[in-house]
Structure prediction request, 339 residues.
Amino acid sequence: MADIIKLLPDHVANQIAAGEVVQRPASVVKELLENAIDAGAETIKLIIKDGGKTLIQVVDDGSGMSETDARLSFERHATSKINRAEDLFKLSTKGFRGEALASIAAIAHVEMQTKPEEAELGTHLKIEGSKIIFQEVQVVPKGTSISVKHLFFNIPARRNFLKSNQVELRHITDEFHRVALAHPQISFHYYVNGSELFGLPKCNLRQRIVHVFGSKTNQKLVPVQEETQVVKISGFINKPEFAKKSRGEQFFFVNDRFIKSPYLHHAVLAAFEGLVKPDCHPGYFLYLQVDPGSIDINIHPTKTEVKFDDEHTLYAILRSTIKHSLGQFNVVPALDFET
Ligand code: ADP
Ligand code: MG
Prediction:
């Protein structure tokens, strides 16, 4: 029988990878914001037009890239963040897979302007469907600006699957909240269709939560603090009387990365048991710092799931820490919800 297996060309492989990394405009926003943070940016601008369908742009004042790196950054598995497999268990960066820019450039029109601080001139590069349209030397500010247009231009099925601008914008804003809450030390500006939706100065965590969710939030917050050998927990929970029917304000961050964890969520609910009505959801902003060697983030391309070495211990510590905070702030159980 004749041999029939062949290696896929890069642009096809990139497009396949993109299917996992880029579900919708909000996924692009997440990847670009995370790259800006990894680049050490102090100020990050997010610019969105028409729910991300017309424009997604992220501008940072971070490290920037050399001319060669600017080109290489769009190759698959090209990353400056890890060198060896062992590094996966010492991660201090958001990125490490080296596939976001390659994936995005495979399914959109992308333009990048970038310059390291010390360089006199920067690079302007345009790439569409993995094809370089041009790359030239240009006078550009320090840092990196990446704009993404015509997302899914070559995948009609994905493009047609996009929801209304309003729905896509809601997903983008959720992503923005998560990143902004994880990094109060970074200043963020978020523009939608030409007007500024959020201008967040560099501040502390309480101030950042209040800036994002409004001044009424301040009175709801109860601080949470605990440090053990396994985990350092900080952040806030909302007082139980502010529990809502919707699940909006529930955030877990592990080593400054927003994650979803039904298991840890359950630990929080267990601590609130008897304090909130069964159909209401307590708000929380919880930050866990653990040894990077004790977790695995490389479970899913979007990196919103984490595998913990010792989940059970974490559960117990989290639950008792929150109970303690609730107790300290004289939050007493309501006697009977039915009356
Ligand atoms: P990863 O973040 O997993 O390394 P990406 O595809 O997102 O993969 O980015 C590839 C590389 O491009 C990064 O490792 C980094 O060196 C560089 N890069 C991407 N975005 C920026 C940025 N905003 N500023 C500086 N360097 C960047
Ligand atoms: Mg990245």
